[in-house]
Amino acid sequence: MTSSVDAGRENAAPETVRSADGPTSEPVDLFLRIHALSGEDMLVVCRDFCSEVDAAQAIAQALDDRRSLTFAHASFSRESQESVVVVNPSNVVAIRISRTDSAATGQYL
Prior knowledge:
six-stranded antiparallel sheet, mainly beta, about 10% helix
């Protein structure tokens, strides 16, 4: 699976993102609620993946490999400007992935 979660390889442009159903050119807005060990809650809006499942798999692999999470097409808390966001996973307790920004939806890793 090609994704923008950095694995020591080049980040993929959105047009090369793959979903579970194959290649697609339509990444979706995903809301990543990152819960830190300190209790802080950070919202990252990300367009690096085509589905919640793709995001969960790529993030889980990065966490297993103890790599930083790098999102090439993201913003903090719905900022209008898109930028690259790098997250150090060493203090991350949980990440919720959802297509909507709701405390009641999404997958936890």
